[in-house]
Amino acid sequence: MMLARDEYFFLIILFVNLVISVIYLLAGVFFVVPAHALAAREEDEEILYDNRRTYLFRFIVMVLCPVIVPLFFFMGHLCYLILFWKKADLADVIFSKERVKTNLKADEDAERNIIPLEEAILVNEKKDLRMVLMNVMRKDVRNSLASITLALESEDSETSHYAAAVLSDELNKFRICVQKLRRQIREEEFDETECEEMLLDYMDDILKQRIFSDHEQRKFVKIMEETAESLYGKDRLKITLKQYEMVCLRILEMKDFETSGKWCLRMADQYPDELSAYTCKLKYYFASQDREAFFDTLDALRKSDVVIDSETLELIRIFSLRRQ
To answer: Distances in Å between the alpha carbon of 43 and those of 37, 47, 101, 182, 186?
Structure first.
């Protein structure tokens, strides 16, 4: 039985659509995905790209909906190439919160009923827990992520959902910002150190809360140490006492005693008369179980002219008694 002209034309369209779909699938699976994965490994960054499963799903949809779906994908990619072919240059764009200062009257009734998030989790009253979590989320949550992490284990599913959403959003912002600043560091001139200084301070705010998994925490601490090393190589005088201390402590938390000891000595060499230089060495020697060096540093601190705070003074008193 002979096929009608329209049926013959329809079969040709289906065949051409199938060929295009197969070419699209093979090109994505065997060329595009491996190329993006290689670029991500070479740049040591997390590059977002479609995986093989995505191309398989698109292939199925293109076969089931011929002509329309392939045209849709083609026009979408064409619009992307035309409108977003060049990355936006935000170097001259400044977002400042200091331009407008709004003074709000204190809500005394709300402040009077506020309890710490940790206590609300322990009490596990759903109403109080949700109210405290909402109050935390309305503020800058970056310094409260460790407390929000505790809410993930709450029996209240809505509270744990809110906490998971906030954590996921903030950690993704952190990862993207770290990638962006590292890219800018590679593009800097040798005498430029602004990005290194910014990255050190930004990373410590998050890493000191220990909210990542051990593997990812170690990865970011390594990035932090590499950033500090880059800054030290360019101009070590620009490393502040606080930055030295944060680098030493974050590395020490990973039990990398060799690297931590290196930064403690650098800190003591650049800031010999500062209390933090002594306390960092004390923490390092205590963690590495170097008893002799620990007590030598303790004696040196006691005999120095460094102003000692009450916490360090109590530390000296306790260990001096134990030594006797």
So the answer is: 10, 9, 41, 10, 11
Q: Are 10 and 139 in contact (CB under 8 A)?
A: no
- Listed in sequence order, the residues at least 6 apart from 225 whose beta carbon sits closer than 8 Å to its beta carbon are 247, 250, 251, 259, 263
On whether the CB atoms of residues 225 and 238 are closer than 8 A, the answer is: no
Task: Write the pLDDT tens digit of every residue in 239-271.
Answer: 999 999 999 999 999 999 999 999 999 999 999
Which amino acid, one-letter code, is at 24? Y
Residues 171-219: pLDDT tens digits?
Answer: 888 999 999 999 999 888 888 889 999 999 999 988 988 888 899 999 9
- Tokens 């030290």 sit on residue: 232
| Closest to 172 measured CA to CA, from 48, 43, 41 | 48
- What pTM, to 2 d.p., does this model score? 0.60
Give DSSP secondary structure letters for 144-158: GHHHHHHGGG-S-HH
Structure tokens at 277: 């230089």
Q: Are the C-beta atoms of residues 154 and 164 closer than 8 Å to each other? A: no
**Residue 310 burial by Cβ neighbours in a 10 Å radius (0-12, 13-18, 19+):** exposed
